[in-house]
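Dock NAP; give full complex structure.
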Amino acid sequence: MLKKKERYTVAVVGATGAVGNEMVEILEERDFPVERLRLFASERSEGKTLTFQESEIPVETLKEDSFKDIDIALFSAGAERSKIWAPIAAASGCVVIDNSSQWRMDPEVPLVVPEVNAHDLKKHKGIIANPNCSTIQMVVVLKPIHDAARIKRVVVTTFQSVSGTGKKAMDELLQQTTDILNFREVKCNVYPHQIAFNILPHIDKFLDNGYTKEEMKMVNETKKILGDDSIKVTATTVRVPVFRCHSESLNIETEKKITPNEVRAVLAEAPGIVVFDAPEKNVYPLPIDVAGKDETYVGRIREDDSVEHGINMWIVADNLRKGAALNAVQIAEKLVEMAE
Ligand code: NAP
Ligand code: 12T
C-alpha cells in the first residue's frame, strides 16, 4: 500500500517515449503532488533532459537500487523492461503502475480503469496494470450500459492511430507521406506494409487462432476489468494512417431492452464520457477533435434491429491520454486518495 504523504517521489520509466512524455506532461497539468520526479530511459537517452514544472530533469538509466526512495513508478518502456524491473521496483517498496502488456492478465495484478473498477486497487501487491489502449476506451463506455441492461455480446472493430506503436511509427507515417507526395520511394521499417494512404488489418503479432494479440487483449482484458467472464467479445483491430486517437465501431447486444435515447442518457451521466451525437448537424466524434481530450467521445448511437436487443455506436478517445498516460496518472491519483 502507498503510505500517506504530502508529496510523493514519482518515477517515469520510458520517459523519452510517446507515452512517457505524455505522463510527464499530465503529472504537471493535473498538479499531481510530486515531491521529486525521476526520469528513466535506455542508455541511448543518456545526457538528455526533460522539462517538468520549469526545471530540467536529467534522464537516468535503471540500476538495481534506482527505486529505493521512489513511492510511485509509472512504467512505459515495453513489456521486456516491465518483466525485469517491475518486480525489482515493487520489492523495494515502490508501487508500480505498468503500461505494458506484461502483467495485465496475472491474477495477482489488478487491471484498472478508475471509472470502472477502482475498487480492484485495494488488493494490489505492488504492481498495478494499465489496460490496453483500445480496451480502456471501450470499457469506459460498456460499464454504464452493462449496469443498465447487462451486456451479452460485443462486436468491435478498431481504427487505431500510429502513436499506439510509439515514436518511430509516428515518424514512419510522416516520412512515408512526404516521400509519396514527393514521388520518392517508400520505406517500411515499423509495419510490414506501407501505412501512409493505406489501412492494415493487423496490430501486434498473429496467434494460432487467426486473431492478433491486440484482438485477444480486447477480449480477455474486458472480462477481467468488468469482472464478468460471461461477456462475449470478438474484435478486429485495424491500423489507420492517423497520428493520434483510436476510433472504434461497437455493436452491443444486451439482455434487457435499452433504446438509443436511454443509452444517451446513461452515458451522459457516466464519468469520463462525452456524448457527441447530432448526426443531423454532422456532429460525431473525430480523431482530430478528440486529440488532447481526456474523455471518451460517443456518437452515432442507434438501434441494431438485426438482433433482439442491439445497439451500434462510434467511440473515439486519445490513445496516448486516456488509452495510456492519463489512465495511469488517474490510477496514481486514486492510490493517493486511498493512502493511509
Ligand atoms: P516508444 O515511444 O517507443 O518509447 C519507448 C520508451 O522505452 C523510451 O523512453 C525508451 O527509451 C524506453 N526504453 C526502451 N528500452 C529501454 C531500456 N532497456 N531501459 C529503459 N528504458 C527503455 O513507445 P511508447 O509508445 O511510449 O510505448 C512504451 C510502452 O507503453 C510499451 O510497453 C507499450 O506496450 C506501452 N503502451 C501501452 C499502451 C496502452 O495500451 N496502454 C499504449 C501505448 C504504449 P529511449 O528513448 O532511451 O530508447
Ligand atoms: N502493439 O500496450 O501497436 O499492449 O498500437 C498497445 C498498443 C501493444 C499494448 C500498438 C501494441 C499495446 C500497441
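Observed: The domain at 8-131+324-338 is CATH 3.40.50.720 (Rossmann fold).
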